[in-house]
Hints:
Helices cover 52% and strands 4% of the residues. It is mainly alpha-helical. It has one domain (6-86). Strands 1-2 form a two-stranded antiparallel ribbon. The model has no long low-confidence stretch (mean pLDDT 89).
Amino acid sequence: QRAVTKPRYMQWREGISSSTTLGFRIEGIKKADGSCSTDFKTTRSREQVIRVFEEFVQGDAEVLRRYLNRLQQIRDTLEVSEFFRRHEVIGSSLLFVH
């Protein structure tokens, strides 16, 4: 029996999540009521991710719009950054709080 290497495991994990299709994955959510959820390993499609975000913000379209605007600002900043033009981000996390 062969052991699973870390790179192989990471490749498998990305393949079953939205990492491969969308470039990111949801690791966990903690809501204002204190409830936590980390069962997003197979949340893969755009539609599934949208449902998770809608549930997280309890259907508040304004909060979703603000998150989207902020993400666009971050993207715009990174696209003109000399540092990020010459470097690759291997792993990063975003924490959404509202």
